[in-house]
From TrEMBL:
Pathway assigned to this chain's UniProt record: Lipid metabolism; fatty acid beta-oxidation
Name recorded for this polypeptide: 3-hydroxyacyl-CoA dehydrogenase NAD-binding domain-containing protein
Recorded catalytic activity of this chain's protein: a (3S)-3-hydroxyacyl-CoA + NAD(+) = a 3-oxoacyl-CoA + NADH + H(+)
Subcellular location: Peroxisome
Gene3D superfamilies: 1.10.1040.50, 2-enoyl-CoA Hydratase, Chain A, domain 1, NAD(P)-binding Rossmann-like Domain
Entry-linked InterPro entries: 3-OHacyl-CoA_DH_NAD-bd, 3HC_DH_C, 6-PGluconate_DH-like_C_sf, ClpP/crotonase-like_dom_sf, Enoyl-CoA_hydra/iso, NAD(P)-bd_dom_sf
Keywords of this entry: Fatty acid metabolism, Isomerase, Lipid degradation, Lipid metabolism, Lyase, Multifunctional enzyme, NAD, Oxidoreductase, Peroxisome
Length: 693
């Protein structure tokens, strides 16, 4: 794993652990052996550390985080050996020097890098902290403020910036190894050896740390590792290196063992797994998507179009009236201009993107598009009409996609002569912002169309997850049950604010009723009316339906379940509370007080239960996919790993018990896994194994 090669009086240690040279078992052993050999050999004047393949070490091996400490690869020991090494050591960086990779480099005497290398300490994103000296060394090089920025955001910086900060000693323009060897020869005789651990920290006033502690209340609400990082960075300022180094080891273990870190690590792997589709090989041919058509310039259609414009793809957007088209274009332009005002885009970028957009009133203008996405309102008749026309005019091989969130994609595909080209692309509102894309695989969707859409999702910066056809697909089907249970809780005596507060405390930025007010009460109402009619049931008449009928439709009408001030902060409305009380009285319900714990258990329980059904029916491929959908589409806190992972953290039997206690029938799959003492991760493994057989 670590190759030793001599270049005159320099020993080069090359780390080979593809794809990203993570610090896996074998790497520390190889490095330590190489360093010991170099120390003992008088002919060696200096050592260069470099990564083989596409990158320097991109971090600790996250897969080993579950191992007992003694069995984990000895990163700290390697770092200590480097820090105490009697000869100059040079880290030669390319690709990404992240986490443990940067910590190794920081323990070397010098760092050189190619200009496009990226350096960072992203541990916070995994709910941990730099555990091999990073919290103590980085502030000693770049100062307290910059180190806090880097460690709390987890975002890497470019080598060019690192050079300005003194984190990199030299930029290498040509071949990295040759440059690093030349550098090593230049410094081979320099003594004393520079050691970051012996330096002091710049700019570590108490105010810097107080401000950081204040800031994380907003940016990392409810999370453990950011505050540990701040404590440790402060120790780097105020305490001897050795003391900070020891404290870091202990706090790293504390963070590593936390449910938050388990949740974030689960997300790291499951997000990458969700990009893989069983049965679809890497060699599945992809279609070349060069021109996109969008039908409908409303909020959804406009947002969808922006994704492709941002990625440099020309879009033709079609509407039925001049007014609707003008309005849609106006919204897109305003969105871009507001990004420009915030400094996220230049004025040129705005114009470049708008220039890629062609407005049209004629669907015939979509005849050259490689992908056409329909984003009109949810009406099967209208959609069928559009797809019949698309079938007649779209070029051969074009992908025909619907953005429906509830309708049957098979039925839509059936009106065309090419159902294999039809797919659902379910964007989430606002479509230019939300990262999730449910990719709905219909009965006849071809592998090529599916694989092309997965690749396209990545290109436009979305997390694409494959789902099957059913009412609401994965996300909306689950949120529907969740909404029902939330309303039941209010029926029984909780206030909407109690319900939302419990979910906010769990880490969701919005509870179910805050979400309803934002989406518009009329939307959910229309769905409930539609469903009731379909089932021949009476018109819905719950307390929420009654609020809609008062004309309060949520934030867009200035109020719904709550009132809103200019800051859009919800405030309970006394009339609405009275309406709820009158409703309960009419139904003969004696309200009872409901604890936050009960609210959380019931709401997460209904999500998990519906998730289990979805999984059993094969609508989602994996429980992990459901977690990805819920985190990126519905604001479930990443540090809880998504609802299905959260179920495992609670213990599935507890989830089953809560469902039964509150009158629900647990899904058979959930009951089976609970009985067998398993988690949904076990189920994912079982399914993966059986599909490989
Ligand atoms: N430990 C274990 N496996 C890792 C890993 C790590 N630190 N970093 C990446 N991998 C694996 C991924 O799971 C993926 O495996 P797969 O192909 O089986 O799905 C593979 O390496 C490639 O990673 P991917 O993220 O798909 O590649 P990329 O080119 O888009 O991004 C990185 C590369 C390094 C930027 C990205 O993987 C990353 O950010 N890794 C984590 C770095 C980190 O947090 N380090 C600190 C750990 S404390």
């Amino acid at each position: 794993m670590v190759e030793q090669s001599r270049h005159d009086d320099i020993l080069v240690l090359t780390i080979h652990n593809p794809p990203v040279n993570a610090f896996s078992p074998g790497v520390p052993e190889g490095l330590k052996a190489g360093l010991s050999a170099a120390a003992a050999d008088d002919r060696i004047a200096a050592v260069v550390l470099i990564g083989g393949g596409r990158t320097f070490v991109a971090g600790a091996d996250i897969k080993t985080f579950g191992l007992p400490r003694e069995q984990a690869p000895d990163l700290r020991g390697t770092v200590q050996q480097l820090d105490a090494f009697p000869k100059p050591t040079v880290a030669a960086l390319h690709g990404t020097a992240l986490g443990g990779g940067l910590e190794l480099a920081l323990a070397c005497s010098y760092r050189v890098a190619v200009p496009d290398a990226r350096l960072g300490l992203p541990e916070v994103k995994l709910g941990v902290l730099p555990g091999a000296g990073g919290t103590q060394r980085l502030p000693r090089v770049v100062g307290a403020q910059k180190a806090l920025d880097m460690m709390l955001s987890g975002a890497p910086i470019q080598a060019t910036e690192a050079k300005e900060l003194g984190l990199v000693d030299d930029l290498i323009e040509g071949g990295l190894l040759e440059g690093a060897l030349a550098f090593a020869r230049r410094v081979a005789a320099v003594r004393p050896l520079p050691r970051i651990s012996e330096r002091a920290v710049d700019g570590g006033s108490p105010e810097v740390f107080a401000a950081a502690r204040e800031a994380i209340k907003k940016t990392h609400r409810g999370q453990l590792s950011p505050s540990l990082i701040i404590d440790l960075a402060e120790m780097a300022v105020n305490r001897p290196f050795e003391e900070g180094w020891q404290a870091e080891a202990q706090k790293f273990m504390e963070a590593r063992e936390s449910p938050q870190s388990r949740g974030l690590r689960h997300l790291f792997f499951t997000e990458r797994e969700s990009a893989k589709i069983p049965g679809l090989g890497k060699d599945t041919p992809l279609l070349d998507i060069r021109r996109v058509g969008v039908i409908g310039a409303g909020t959804m259609g406009g947002g969808i179009a922006m994704n492709f414009l941002n990625a440099g793809l020309p879009v033709t957007i079609v509407e039925t009236t001049e007014e609707a088209l003008d309005r849609g274009l106006g919204v897109i332009r305003r969105n871009y201009e507001s990004s420009a005002k915030k400094g996220r885009l230049s004025a040129d970028d705005v114009e470049r993107r708008m220039a890629l957009l062609t407005p049209s009133l004629d669907m015939g203008d979509l005849k050259d598009a490689d992908l056409i996405i329909e984003a009109v309102f949810e009406d099967m008749g209208v959609k069928k009409d559009i797809f019949t026309r698309l079938d007649a005019l779209a070029k051969d091989g074009a992908i025909l996609a619907t953005n429906t969130s509830t309708l049957d994609v098979n039925e839509i595909a059936a009106v065309t002569s090419r159902p294999e080209q039809v797919i659902g692309l379910h964007f989430f509102s606002p479509a230019n912002v939300m990262k999730l894309l449910e990719i709905v695989r219909a009965e006849n969707t071809s592998d090529t169309v599916l694989a092309t859409c997965m690749a396209l999702a990545k290109k436009i910066g979305k997390v694409g997850v494959v789902v099957g056809v059913c009412d609401g697909f994965v996300g909306n089907r689950m949120v529907h049950r969740y909404g029902e249970e939330a309303r039941r809780l209010v029926d029984e005596g909780a206030s909407p604010a109690d319900v939302d507060a419990a979910m906010n405390a769990l880490g969701l930025p919005m509870g179910p009723f805050q979400m309803t007010d934002m989406a518009g009460l009329d939307i959910g109402y229309a769905i409930r009316v539609h469903r009731a009619r379909q089932r021949g049931e009476p018109e819905p008449d719950g307390w929420l339906d009654r609020i809609v009928k008062t004309g309060r439709k949520g934030q867009k009408t200035g109020g719904g379940i709550y009132d809103y001030d200019e800051t859009r902060r919800p405030r309970p409305n006394a009339d609405m509370q009275a309406l709820i009380e009158a409703y309960r009285a009419e139904k003969g319900i004696t309200p009872r007080s409901i604890s936050a714990d009960e609210i959380t258990r019931r709401l997460t329980g209904t999500l998990i239960n519906e998730g289990a059904r979805i999984l059993d029916e094969g609508i989602a491929q994996r429980a992990g996919d459901i977690d990805v959908i819920y985190i990126y589409g519905y604001g479930f806190p990443a540090y809880r790993g998504g609802p299905m992972h959260y179920a495992g953290e609670q213990g599935l039997q507890k989830v089953v018990d809560a469902l039964k206690q509150y009158g629900h029938t647990p899904a058979p799959l959930l009951e089976r896994l609970a009985r067998e003492g398993k988690t949904f991760a076990d189920f994912d493994r079982e399914r993966a194994n059986s599909s490989q057989k």
